[in-house]
């Protein structure tokens, strides 16, 4: 075995959690939890990565409360589903793989028809996701709504630890609830929760403190952030350094610097072919199809893929934090993994690379010069709306559909 595979496949630990290698399955919303309840298909989906040798898999977008779902079919951390969620986590763990849960709240961005009233975010206005479905507007959160959100994270964290999750990943990025507070584009509040970055960080830091209190000091908590929203007036790379410093000081164990937002600029997150054709393929709502045809080319331009496309920006974070760093974004080969780890990262999260090659760690062990077969066509992104759940239409084994 060459040095590159030795490094990516070497043991590591994260706040006491032993991980058999440095490769982690990134959260990729699975769409395999009808009505918020995990299905056998969700277990099978994650088991394929566990069997393939990944150290830890991340269950994507675990809504911390009913109102935190983007749609009604998102996994919800609720006592009513304790036995199903416990089974999900325990079944995957049987394959020598740790399980993290990505804690999410959609805030003002929702098409969840089971929601009572309008979705709520830092500032009211148009509900971009629900607009085409008749959920036109979102409301401004009151101070008691803010307290409620903190409690929802606290309760969800307690619940998630009790059902056996090994680690929690708080989603601070991609335009969802906590990111809406961080972003000056979506947070136009005039109180202590809006304005300066210090104020915009207030709710996200309260959430981190509440989650930490719920799980204890010796339980790993990761933070996924957006480095830049890629929009004038939005979060920029320099802001992300300040955000990382604040999370580090507040006791985060690891930071995953991602990019872009699902709401405004998703192509910054997964560079490659435009996701427009695949979104059109699965979108059933006629108004949404019309809007996609009208604005899709501008919203979802093809952004040429290149390996490790976030590395240059993400590397700057190493100099400002003491916590562990998890690289994400276009890591596709043994050579890439080596370069990333040598640049000061402790772990690597893999999204599309694993969708295309679920047994990547095994392949890497056998062949250190392994290269992923993912073509960055981004067809998998549209499968977020597929009745079969997300998958790589190019290479997926039909047995997991
Ligand atoms: C189909 C699909 C679904 C995704 N869902 C999520 C999600 O639920 N939460 C999240 O933080 N990121 C999500 N992402 C983004 C990935 O976690 C990752 O940041 C991105 O794909 C870049 O990494 P990669 O180049 O290894 O794919 C998704 C990506 C894809 C392709
Ligand atoms: S559909 Fe498959 S090949 Fe295309 S980007 Fe997704 S994982 Fe890669």
Commentary on this structure:
The protein is α/β, with parallel strands linked by helices and 401 residues long. It has a single domain, classed as Aldolase class I (TIM Barrel, Alpha-Beta Barrel), CATH 3.20.20.70. The protein is 35% helix and 14% strand. It has 15 helices and 13 strands. The chain has helices at 3-8, 40-51, 82-93, 143-162, 177-182, 197-200, 202-215, 237-249, 276-282, 286-299, 311-318, 334-342, 352-356, 360-366, 379-382, and strands spanning 12-14, 17-19, 23-25, 56-63, 98-104, 120-121, 125-126, 137-140, 167-171, 221-226, 254-258, 324-327, 347-350. The chain has an eight-stranded parallel beta barrel with strand order 3-4-5-9-10-11-12-13, surrounded by seven helices. A three-stranded mixed beta sheet has the order 6-8-7. Strands 1-2 form a two-stranded antiparallel ribbon. Strand 1 (12-14) and strand 2 (17-19) form a beta hairpin. Helix 2 packs parallel to helix 3 (82-93). The chain is globular, with a radius of gyration of 19 Å. Residues 17-256 form the NADH:flavin oxidoreductase/NADH oxidase N-terminal domain. It comes from Zhongshania antarctica. Keywords: Flavoprotein, Oxidoreductase.
